[in-house]
Each structure stands twice: as structure tokens, then as C-alpha cells.
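Give me the fold.
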Amino acid sequence: MAFVISCLRKKGFMLSLCFWVLSASAFAQVSISRTNSLSYENYLQMLDEEAKIPLSEIQEEENPEHLKERMALYRKGDRGTYNWRCMGVERADEYAPLYAIDVIKHAGLQKTTANVLESVFRHFYDMEMKMLKEIGTKKFVHKYIVATPKFAHLNILKEAKLREVMDRDDHVRYFMKYILPAVSRSPGQVIEKDEFKCVHYVRAPLFAQGNFAVWIGENVKYPKDALQNNWQGQVVVSFTVELDGSVSNVQVVKGGAYSLNVEAVRIVKSAPKFIPAWCPLHQKYVKRSMTVPISFKLQ
């Protein structure tokens, strides 16, 4: 009898232990509201539907009416804009390892490794560069805008691949940090599939004068006190491209000496208008935030 009671006590302890482990596992899962959960399911459905469509079947946008008046302003910027876009992809590929680590830290991913994310990023950067080279420099701005659906679909395919390499909890964390904040929404609103698709389809703003980095280099002024004190360094500036292409909300994200920060903000504020971001699904311009690194170096 004592032996039976002893066994029951041990089994009771084991049952309690199992319950505690299961409870701890449940608490370790991502906490997400019902609204966001429904939005997440819509996002997954969008990815599932779009991932079945190969890039080769995506049709280019026909010559859009909203571009006709603006295209004449950008005919001389084709080569510069092409070089700027290629440089951006090359820089992204170079920083892929750091970006992968940043994603893990920012989203709080627990099981996804940086090597896995880096391989996904590099694969799609290579595909984007291939598409840019196929377009070439001749009439680049026009062809690039017309090809917006292809570049957008490439982004969606990348997101589908990221989902594939993450477990569900990590992907929910990624969704909450990177996807959901990109959608304009009211509190408690469930986001529909088309809204998530629009996030990827919005065409990034294009600089009116071609290569924004080159324009900054030609127009920036080295502050006198920085010259006298041998101040150098890189200043990273964020800004918003408004619906009319103008620049607003210019802020220093990563700064250096005070006068270098001031000059970096000044030069970005004085920039000519961009071609604003365009959403082909909703057929309207949208605001978009951008960042630009500005290097101050003494010869």
C-alpha cells in the first residue's frame, strides 16, 4: 500500500511538472490581439496566393497617365538614377549580414539565425540587380516605373521566402515589427489582403536629378569650423517625400559634429523635388520615408 501511494505521489509530481512545462511553453508564445491575429491571417493568405505566381507572369504597368506630365522633367536623369538604384542594391547586399542581425534584434526573433536571413536577402538582391541590368540606362526612369509590378512582386516573393524559413512565432514577431506598422490603419482595424499587397507595390520615390548621392556631393558645403577643427564623419539623415515630391520632416538619425549635422539637414531640405511614391493598386501618390548617408571627408 505504501508503495502504491509512493508511486501515485511520484506520478502526481510528474503530472504537475508536465503541466508547468506546457504552461511555460504557452507563455513563451507570441502574444497577439485578435484584431492583429486576423490581420496576420490575411497577410498569410496574401503571401500564399501571390507566391504561386512566378515573376515571369507579372505584367508591366502600361504607360500610366499620371506620369505623362512629369516624365519630361526626368529625361536627363536616366543614367544617374540607374547608377543610384544599382548602388543602393549593391550597398544593401554588402550590409546583408548586419541587416540580418538587426532584424533578429529588432523583431526579437528566437529561432531564426542570421545566416538564414542573410542568404534570403542576398538571393533577392541578386535578382533585383539582374532586373535593373536588364532594363539598362536608356530611358531607365520610364522603364523602371513601368516595371513597378515586377519589382513589387519580387518583394512579395522575398517575404514569402522569409515566412518559409521562420517558425510561426518568429514570423509573427517579424510581422508585428516590420509589416503591420507599414500599413495606415485605425485602432482595432483588421487589415485586408489588398492593403498588405499595397505595402509591397508602392514604388519608392525617385530623385528628379538622377543620383541623389552625386547631387549632394556637388552641392554640400563643408562647414568652416569643421575644416578648422578637422571634423569628419558620416551623418545619416531621414526625411519624408510628400505627395508633391517635396521633402519634409528632415531629421538626423546618426550624427557627428554639430555643424556637420546642420549642413546635412540643410542640404537635404534644399533638394529638388522627387518623383513621389506611387501605389498602382490604389492609383494614387503616397508619402514615403527615406534615409541617406552623407559623408564628410577632408582630402
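Residues 53 and 153 are 9 Å apart (CA to CA).
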